Amino acid sequence: MKYISIEQLDPDKDLILPCRKNQLELLKEFTGNITPDFEGEHATFQTFYGKAGNRIYALGIGEEKDAVKIGKAFQKLCFDTKKYWKDTMQLQGAALNAEELQKAIIGMEMGTYQIGRFKTEQKATTETTIQVVGSGDIAGPLNEGALIGATINRIKALVDAPANQKTPEYLGNWAKESAGLNKYKCTLLGKKELEEQGFDAVLAVGRGSENPPVVVVTEYMARPGDGIDIGLVGKGITFDTGGLSIKPSQNLHYMKSDMGGAAVVLGVVELAARMGLNINIVGVVASAENAVDSKSYRPGDVINSYSKKTIEIIDTDAEGRLVLADGLSYIIQKFQPHQVIDLATLTGSVVRTLAYSAAGMFTNNSEMATKMSDIGNRVNERVWPLPLYEEFETDLESDIADLRNFSGKPVAGAITAAKFLQAFTNEHKQWMHLDIAGVAFGDSHYAKMKSSSGFGVQLILEYIKTSIKK
Ligand code: BES
Ligand code: ZN
Ligand code: ZN
C-alpha cells in the first residue's frame, strides 16, 4: 500500500476513524445523532455509511495510549476488511502522535500479509493509497512505517516458505537481490569457499543434504572506512530434521522455520540500508539444511570449526549452535564489530521456560541487557534474561575434543546452548545471544496452523538505532 499525507478529509470517501474507548464525539460528526453499538473497545470495529454511501470504519483503539496496541488494532481491521478497500482510503490520524501513527501504518501494512502464496487461486488485491490527515509533518512516520511493515511481511514470507523452495542457496539469492536493489554489499560463501576458509562446523551440519550450505555476509556501511558498530549473526537452518539424532515426526513440518534468526538479520540489514541509517552494520547468516543421509555427520564424530576448536558431536539435533559458532568466530575475527548479537531458534528448552511470551536473552553486558529489555517492552517483542553462569562450562567438556555440543542432561538446555556459543565469541565484551525458538513462529488470528510472527525485526531495528552516531 502507499501512504500519503493530505490536509483535509473528503467526507464522501471511505475513511478509517480511530476511536478511543468511550470517546465517540468525532464519530458522531460522521454518523449524526445515533447511538452506535460500539464503544471503542480495543481492536473492535464497526462499519458505518456516509451520505455518499462511503464506508466509515470506526476502529477501537482502547483506553490508554499504547502504540503497540494501536498497531494490532489496525492490523486486524486491515486483515478483516481489506477486500472491500478501493484504490483510495482515508485515515483520520490527527489524534495520533508520531509513534502511534507509525505503528498504525506498520499494522496496516502487516494486515496485507498473504499467507496463501502457494494457492492456485490468489486473492485479488487492490493497490490502495491511504491518504492520511495528521498533526504536523507526518512524512517520517508514514515512510518509515510503510518500509518497516513491508519488510516484516517479506521476512514473514521467508520464514513461512517451505523448505523445498527455501534452500540455503535461496536465502543467499534473497540477500543478493536485496543488496543489489538497496545498495549494500552481499558476499555469498558457497561450499568451495567454506571449505577453503575452514567453516568446518557449517559444513558438517550441511553434509547430509543435497542443498549445500551457504554463509551470507551482508555489509551496510554508512561511514566507509570506520569500524563496524554492530554485527548480527543468524541461525539459518532451512530445515531441521534433527539429522541422525532424528526428531519425532509430530510438528516436524514446523522446522522449516528454523531460519527465523537468519530472517531477522536479513530484514534488519535491508532496513538499515533502505532507511539510510548512519550506522556500519554487518549481518552474517550461517545457513545449512540438517538432513538425514548416509553422508550426514554422526553422533560421536569429532569435527573442526572456523575457530579451530574441535567439537565432539553428542547430538546432531544440536546443530544451530554449530553453524552459529562458525558465524560468530567469523564475524568477530573478520570484522571486529563493536557489538555482536546473534539470533536463533536455538532450543526447545527456551520454549519450555518462557513459552511463547519472550525470547531468552543471554549476555554479561548489563547495559546491552537493559537497553534490549526496554526496547522489547516498548515494541512488544519481549526478551527475558537468563544466566551465563560459569558452572555450566563443565557440562560442555569433552573427553576427546575441546568441547562437546550437548551436555546430555535434560536440564537448562537453553543455558548450555548459550554457553556453547560463548566459547566462540573470543570473550567479546559486548555479545548478546537471543534464543527466539518460542516467539519466531506461533499462533495468529489469520492462520489455522502456526506461522511466522516477524518477531525480532522491530526489536533489533530499534536496538541498532541506539548505536547511531550523531
Ligand atoms: N531447532 C531446534 C530448536 C527448536 C525447538 C526450535 C522448537 C523451535 C521450536 C534445535 O536445533 C534443537 O533441536 N535443539 C535441541 C537441542 C538438544 C538436542 C540438545 C532441543 O532443544 O531439544
Ligand atoms: Zn536441531
Ligand atoms: Zn535447529
Describe the structure.
With 470 residues, the protein is of the alpha/beta class. It folds into 2 domains: 2-134, Leucine Aminopeptidase, subunit E, domain 1; 161-465, Aminopeptidase (3-Layer(aba) Sandwich). Helix content is 34%, strand content 21%. The protein contains 13 helices and 19 strands. It has helices spanning 25-31, 67-81, 98-110, 139-160, 168-182, 191-197, 200-206, 260-275, 320-335, 348-354, 366-379, 413-422, 457-465; strands spanning 2-5, 15-19, 45-49, 55-60, 88-92, 129-133, 185-189, 214-221, 230-240, 280-290, 302-303, 311-312, 339-344, 359-362, 383-385, 403-404, 431-435, 441-444, 447-452. Strands 7-8-10-9-13-17-14-15 form an 8-stranded mixed β-sheet, with helices on both faces. α11 links the parallel β14 (359-362) and β15. α3 (98-110) packs parallel to α4, α5 (168-182) packs parallel to α8 (260-275) and α9 runs parallel beside α12 (413-422). It is elongated and about 80 Å long. It starts with a strand and ends in a 5-residue tail after the last helix. The mean pLDDT is 96.
